[in-house]
Amino acid sequence: MKxxxxxxxxxVGTEMLRVLTELDFPVDELVPVAxxxxxxxxxxxKGKKYKVVSMExxxxxxxxxxxxxxxxxxxxxxxxxxxxxxxxxxxxxxAWRMDPEVPLVVPEVNIDAVGxxxxxxxxxxxxxxxxxxxxxxxxxxxxxxxxISTYQSVTGTGKAAVDQMMAERAGKEAAMVYPQPIDLNVxxxxxxxxxxxxxxxxxxxxxxxxxxxxxxSIRITATAVRVPVVGGHSESINIEFEKAFEISEVxxxxxxxxxxxxxxxxxxxxxxxxRDSHGHDEVFVGRIRxxxxxxxxxxxxxxxxxxxxxxxxxAVQIAKKLEENAxxxx
Length: 330
Known about the structure:
Elements: E1 2-6, H1 11-22, E2 29-33, E3 42-45, E4 48-51, H2 55-60, E5 65-68, H3 72-84, E6 88-91, H4 107-110, E7 119-121, H5 125-141, E8 143-152, H6 159-169, H7 200-213, E9 219-226, E10 233-241, H8 247-256, E11 260-262, H9 274-277, E12 283-291, E13 297-304, H10 308-327
Parallel strand pairs: 1-2, 1-5, 5-6, 6-7, 8-9, 11-12
Antiparallel strand pairs: 3-4, 8-10, 10-13, 12-13
Helix pairs in contact: 1-10, 5-7, 5-10
């Protein structure tokens, strides 16, 4: 088994190496790929040292899988070249997510969408954790409308954003990644603003959720907020269902959903926080309660590690699920 990690020196690329090890994905040979400035650098994986290679050399190696986390423009330029030599490409950027020919996959929800495709899109981090919690509820009660508010870590922007926050926290001059200070602040601004005055991040939640759940009728609105924390995205989700439900049934469905951990006992002050999610691959759900202002309404709180389930873990889990299915002939 030959696996390429494209963008191997970045935050998500580094996390992909860690997850490949932890999930015991059968990597016989690693092909670490990065930009020209990183070519020749050494990285270590499972006790063995590898030299970072160029994109062209990565393609020539004809890996079985290529896990991409090198940005949209890189993916648009090279992902299909990998696919053309028979490599299954799992791309973490936004480049292919809304392409109708490219499956957008959360493996616990819609692995069957992959089919014979050699190019698979990893959803946005905030979408992944949300649809994992929504999928069993949508199947049971059919979602009519979603109102989403996110509280997203600076790690979602990258290392430079973490550096900005830490410099501000230390009282040092900071290289500004965000248009405002982020430490001791909250910015209702994730990604760029679009013509409709929503941000790109907010519209990802709209379009990607519909595609993964396979239902364009769901009405969705979102506000995405950047908060001064390292690791972990949190979401407040308000759901209006078409069918009536019981809270006990909601809890049962979530507790039985693969990849979800239910932490929901207000009497004991038990609810998920981002610290619960650090280093974990599961999505944590709590604060489940009926929305008494609307018929068939529900509120819940969803937390996950955005670098793991929100990016690296989801990509590795797609590959792992495909390998498992191939072995049993699915």
